[in-house]
Amino acid sequence: MSSKVNTKNDEIASNSDPQHYHGGNKEIILTHQAVAEMKDKMGEVSATATAVIGSVSTQLQPDVLLALPKKMSLKRTLHRKRQKLQSDSGSISYSPPKVATFSIPDEFQHMILCDCGSADDKMITIGKNELLDGLARAKLWLADGTFKFVP
Question: Whole-structure pTM over 0.85, yes or no?
């Protein structure tokens, strides 16, 4: 890596790499460590990239947070890490766990709004009728991305 220094009358007129110095940059080093920790967490848990970024970011100092790459760059990096881990392990996609003997304990039976389907296509809807009535009267519904596996 080289930098260009322009001189005029034995004085430095401009430097193409003004931030280059050999003292090191603590924030950059801590940022690299944070990204490495995020990559490790992607292998440990089956959380989304956003959740992993959030969990690691809450532990970082403000100056390190400022030095982190943009969120989209981090997400791309973490997605690539997950793809690499999946290809290394032979696992290509995630499917929700299936438990054929699943049953709701008696103390929670009042929360079951719908229990339909057979063992392979079983769907259980849990909620409260009073809350559903309020939802039925609402003009606007907002939902998150947790409905990926709902038929």
Answer: no
